[in-house]
C-alpha cells in the first residue's frame, strides 16, 4: 500500500464513525481527499475502556526534534504483517497493546517499475466507507516533556484482485463487524493469536478503483469495480 489516504467529509465516513461509538474526541477530525504519509490523520483507539478519536502522525517511528517530534529516517507509515510477531520490530509491542483503526473513504496505490511510477489508482468504497487496521504509539520527549502520537497501517500480501493495480502489498481492510472491531480495539487483549485470520488479503466491501494521472492533479483516466470477496 502506498502512502496516501482519502478521508473526505463524506456521509459514509461520518456514519462509520458514528457506528464506532466514539466516546471522546480529543481533536477535531481531519478531513482531506489527499492525506499523505507523515501528515496527521484521525485514528480511533481505546484507552482504559474509553473509545476515542485522536490525531496522529502517519509514521509509526518518531524521533525528538528541537521542539517536539519528527518522523524517523526509517520508513514506517506501513507495518508489514510478517513483522508483527518479530520481537524488537517497530510494531511488535503496538500489535499487542495499542491497535487502532482508521476510518476512511479510500486509499491510493502507486505501481512502480525500476523505482519509477508506472500508474496511479485511487480506491474508494462504492457505498459507505472503509476501515483500515493499524497500530499507534505514544511518545514523550524526555527533555521537553512534549508528547506525540503516531500510527501506521498494517499491510498484507497483495490481493489477487488488486495485483494489476499494486503488486507489492495490500492494506488490512477490517470488516464492518462492530463485534470484531471491539475485539481489535480492546487493549486487554495482548495475545493477538485470534487476529491471525485477519492477516490474509481480504476485500470485505465493494470498491471502485479509479486510474488517475497523478495524485496532485487528480485527472480521471478510467475506473473499474472491485467486488468484495
Short description:
The chain has three helices and 16 strands. It is mostly beta strands and 229 residues long. Belongs to the SOS response-associated peptidase family.
Which properties best describe this structure?
229 residues; mainly beta; hypothetical protein yedk fold; eight-stranded mixed beta sheet; six-stranded antiparallel beta sheet; 3 helices; 42% strand
What do these coordinates show?
This protein is mainly beta and 229 residues long. It has one domain (4-106, 129-202): SOS response associated peptidase-like (hypothetical protein yedk fold, Alpha-Beta Complex). The chain contains three helices and 16 strands. The strands form three sheets. Strands 2, 4, 5, 8, 9, 12, 13 and 14 form an eight-stranded mixed beta sheet that branches. It is globular, with a radius of gyration of 17 Å.
Mean pLDDT: 95
Q: Tell me the β content.
A: 35-45%
Largest sheet: 8 strands, mixed
State the helical fraction: 10-25%
Principal-axes geometry comes out as: globular
Compute the separation of the termini in Å. 19 Å
CATH superfamily: SOS response associated peptidase-like
Low-confidence stretches: none
What is the level 1 CATH name? Alpha Beta
> How many helical elements?
3
What is the count of β-strands?
16
What is the rounded Rg? 17 Å
Task: Draw up the topology in text.
Layout: E1 4-7, H1 11-19, E2 24-25, E3 32-36, E4 40-47, E5 50-58, E6 62-64, E7 69-71, E8 78-80, H2 92-97, E9 99-104, E10 106-113, E11 116-125, E12 130-140, E13 147-156, E14 170-171, H3 178-185, E15 207-212, E16 220-226
Parallel strand pairs: 2-5, 5-13, 8-13
Antiparallel strand pairs: 1-3, 1-10, 4-5, 6-7, 9-12, 10-11, 11-15, 12-13, 13-14, 15-16
